[in-house]
Design brief:
CATH topology of the largest domain: Jelly Rolls
Shape: extended
Largest sheet: 9 strands, mixed
CATH architecture of the largest domain: Sandwich
Number of strands: 24
Strand content: 25-35%
Distance between the termini: 62 Å
Structural class: alpha+beta
Number of helices: 9
Amino acid sequence: MSSATGYVLLYVIFLIPTYILPYFGSNSSIANAIHAGLLGSLYPLFWIHLSIYVAICLLAWLRGPFVQRAWLIALPAFAAVFEFVPGLNLVPLLPTVLNLLCIVLGVRPTTDAPPTKDAQRQSLPLKLGLCLPLILICWGMAALGYAKLSGKRPNPPQVGVKPSLGTAPSAPSPQVTKPVERQAESPTSAPLSTRWIGTWTNGTTKQQLVISSNKFGDCTWVGSATAIPKRAGCWAYYGRESLTVKELVDATKFKVDAQSLALARSIGQTERYRTVQTTNLDHLGSPVGDDGGTVYLIDGDSIFAIISSVEGPNSDLVVRVNKLVSNARATNAASSSTETAIRDNFNGSNLDAEIWVSKGNKVVLRDGYVSLQAAQTDNVGQLWTKALPKYSVVRIRMRHWMQPSGERPFFPMLVLRDANQQPIADLRWLKSNDPPTYCGDANNYDKVLLHVGQTMCAVVTAARSSDFFGVWVDTQISYDRRTGRYTASSQSPTSSMRLEHTVPADQRKVVGDVYLSSYGWFTGHEHRIDSIVVEGEI
């Protein structure tokens, strides 16, 4: 390490594989998730990649005393963090910059004074003794992973024929098997969510995947990997880790076709998905087959199958993505198309903290309703639901009472917001003498109207807002993000209104929460909610 030339040469030799291995998924979150879930160990190339970085850190550690920079190891250590940590490994070029900086700073010392004899005598044995075992462990884990990959590869679910590129995994024949009583589950198992239950098809080939509470295609549902029986059969269970779309796109570091890549990128951008995996065991309880397995996730009304298989003479890991569309509402009577996310009559002594978030001055629960009051200027009572499931359709039924403070501008509202708490559709019973609030059109004054996104006055009804003040009102809302169709209606003892609107395609976001407010100028306004029901369709 006293030679600058030797240091640079060794550093570059070790650095070259770090630019090759990622193309085979060595630092891919999905590769490690699939391998860990199916075979119980991390992807072998991960350990090889990690061992190289350990060696690079060792070089910097050994070289540091010779250039009066004992901290030199920090540069490749930080590079390793940005190489392997999910999310951070998406930052481009930073590992390269850190490694180049380590090479440059490791060439010449800070002074012309030679390193101490202690540095020359002690650095090599000590540091080799610490780092070489780590390198050996990494290579041992890599060997173990390759052994499992070559010897025990579980099958994708055996639901007909082996899925091919661009087609959906096949499923049993269209005849649905006779329902059987659900077997007793292990204490560690988990029931399958009802949103999966139904018949799922490929729109072109009409192949089917039939899912019930105890069957996932031809596989029996057991809930978790720890609940898999030690006997022959195909078993389905929740994966150990949730995945994001960014981790799915990481699969492109394997061999992947354009269609699969496009499908992966069509899935929600930031959500984490709970996955379902399958394992097929032989009569001895060992995985069988030559494929890496299939991971399923559900997004709206579609199931995505991420199929990994080992193919070719070099045992390359190939990833394909197939899409199945639900027709459960039409073909499976056992599946309920609508579920209730929230039902609250506000009869308790406190707001349900598992449902609601409140803010402002003030929010009061009394007499069987919640009161949103404007007791402080620009800090009125507000209420919104905690994050809703990712519904395709949201329906709301609400009984409420609104009262302005004299003739002051009043803006009681019911808003559908996205995951970032930005408005999708904002229904207002507006009464304001401020022209910007009613888009400068005198005909919009004292009218029930709808804002969509950043577009104000998208719909203005003929109904007067004043006719809905001081009385109990029944309001219903429906929003379908697939078509953009939004409908709303309100009924009071003396008046009624109905509106319809199609939300533009680029604004059809998933509803993250439902927001209610008593906003108005100055103080004294009130918005009461007696009951509310929020329903959704996945």
